[in-house]
Amino acid sequence: MCGIVGVVSSAPVNQLIYDALLLLQHRGQDAAGIVTQQERKFFMHKAKGMVRDVFRTRNMRALPGSAGLGQVRYPTAGNAYSEEEAQPFYVNAPFGIVLVHNGNLTNAHALKAELFSTDHRHINTESDSEVLLNVFAHELERSTRGVPLQPEDVFTAVRNVHRRVRGSYAVIALIAGHGVLAFRDPYGIRPLSLGRGKDGTVMVASESVALEGTGHAFERHVAPGEAVFIDLEGRLHARQCAQEPRLNPCIFEYIYLARPDSVLDGISVYQARLNLGETLAKRVVSTVPPSEIDVIIPIPESSRPSATQLAHLLGVPYREGFVKNRYVGRTFIMPGQSVRKKSVRQKLNVIASEFKDRNVLLVDDSIVRGTTSREIVQMARDAGARKVYLASAAPPVRFPNVYGIDMPTAGELVAYGRTVEEVRQIIGCDALIYQDVEGMKRAVMKAAPGAAGAVPISGFDASCFDGVYVTGDINPDDIARINEARIGQEDPLDEDTSRLALPNAQDA
Ligand SMILES: O=P(O)(O)OC[C@H]1O[C@H](OP(=O)(O)OP(=O)(O)O)[C@H](O)[C@@H]1O
Ligand SMILES: NC(=O)CC[C@H](N)C(=O)O
Ligand SMILES: [Mg+2]
Fold first, then answer.
1. CA–CA distance, 309 with 365 (Å, rounded to integer)
2. What is the mean pLDDT of the segment spanning 191-211?
3. Among protein residues, the one whose CA lies closest to atom 15 of ligand 1
4. How many domains does the chain fold into?
5. What are the φ/ψ torsions at residue 362 (nearest 5 degrees)?
6. Is Transferase among this UniProt entry's keywords (predicted)?
7. Less Cβ around it within 10 Å: N or C end of the chain?
8. Beta-bridge partner residues of 264
9. What is the pLDDT of residues 127-170, one digit of tens each?
């Protein structure tokens, strides 16, 4: 996941895009970039780092114009350490196009070869997003019937992109002198929503929080397979460009990735997390009697709504036992295992009095590599807890994700090929309670109020939990290739890339 935003306005957009990126910072911490357009000329600034660090006043002043786009990057392909792979990407023909992408292509490797041999286009990085931009540029070249470009020609190009590209992609592109284009893959795996300001400004962004937080009223979600073209006068043209679109949003958005105050595809992320706490309560009761739990403590940040609901239903006090250092970013989306491990301790500190001589139930939204859980359980014990139970609002993460979450290898997942009891031993808690897959899906679906006009959800991409890939075309070779494409991301100085092992055992 990355965060993307695009804007067409009648006023300068540099500050607006910056503000929207700050609201999407939780979706990507590795790099940030903005492009604006004034009189057909693009102005770009992108670099590694968080939004506040990347854009200084002088950079902001050099971004004039009333249309533009931006991205915060969480790398899932290519190299996290290369400035070159920060987005937006640019090509000069046709017209001049810049593009930002959230998602991950599963056929980037084949497309890259095809772009070279058939389309005669050069790709200069390992990023799948550069591949996507070049496919789009090639298709736009082919579909353009004259100048100025007509929205129908743009839609033909998107139709052809859908034919060639596989995987997940929520995309925003700016076509010089023409407008901003936004489209989503035919399964709608990654989110994209659209809003409007009182002054007529049109904004497209990954999450509704970016619209609302910058004073734009949420209008609607971009439908799976749909393309929306906003011309430079702010007129909106929309077309369904996929043959068989269906909505299968990534369920991990609701569990961890998105902000709780966002609504994605009609589902309130906050309500989904409350519901997950409710279904989790039933699982907890069947494993540990509530009378044996003195206190329920969330592992900040993302698990809080589930933990409050769980505590409420169990009738057990909810307490804050960990304080989060707000200046340390999200640990799961950091590249490299040693930096993740170190950050857990830097990020969370205990309030010892909440643990001393108590049986505590810790609640997290998910256990992926197990880095957080193992550290946290130990911290609870060091603080004097008698018994430490752990509940996860998500089921065990057992399969690689190929759609834009950085867990491409099964081997790094603590629950891969292991029983719950084995995971419990590794994490070192006294009981481990996981959500079940069906319960999770029901809980998230229940948070959709079914608003009129909303595209009905056919199901979720829950591949990291159930191994079912919604695009239906993923085989072990693809997974291996996607993994290879991402290996270069690990910091070469990172010595600790192994997965957590069973105590006193040479793990298979
Ligand atoms: O098993 P692991 O590999 O450690 O990953 C899972 C943990 O990572 C995430 O927290 P993160 O610190 O990224 O963000 P948060 O503050 O939003 O919870 C998630 O909420 C879990 O706590
Ligand atoms: N997380 C994402 O959406 C990543 C986008 C793109 N695949 C990259 O690695 O830069
Ligand atoms: Mg967390």
1. 13
2. 98
3. 301
4. 2
5. -90, 145
6. yes
7. C
8. 267
9. 999 999 999 999 999 999 999 999 999 999 999 999 999 999 99
User: Position 401: which residue type?
Assistant: N
Give a yes or no: residue 258 inside a domain.
no
Site to probe by mutation for ligand 1, drawn from 25, 372, 434 as the one with most ligand atoms within 8 Å of Cβ, is 372
Domain of 142: which CATH number? 3.60.20.10
The residues pairing with 72 across neighbouring beta strands, listed in sequence order, are 3, 32
332 in contact with ligand 1, CB cutoff 6 A: yes
Q: What phi and psi, each to the nearest 5 degrees, are found at residue 306?
A: -65, -40
Torsion (CA) 496, 499, 502, 508 in degrees, nearest 10:
-120
CA of 507 to the centre of ligand 1 (A): 24
Tens of pLDDT, residue by residue over 429-444, are 999 999 999 999 999 9
CA of 9 to the centre of ligand 1 (A): 37
**Has residue 496 got a pLDDT over 60?**
no
280 with 362, same domain: the answer is yes
Q: Give the Cα separation of 187 and 244 in Å (integer).
A: 9
Q: Compute the distance from residue 381 Cα to the ligand 1 centre, in Å.
A: 20
CATH value at residue 351:
3.40.50.2020
**Residue among 409, 470, 455 nearest 167 (CA):** 470
In terms of DSSP bridges, do strands 263-264 and 322-324 run parallel, antiparallel, or are they unpaired?
unpaired
In a domain, 488, yes or no: no
Same domain, 242 and 344: no
Residue range of the domain that includes 334? 268-460
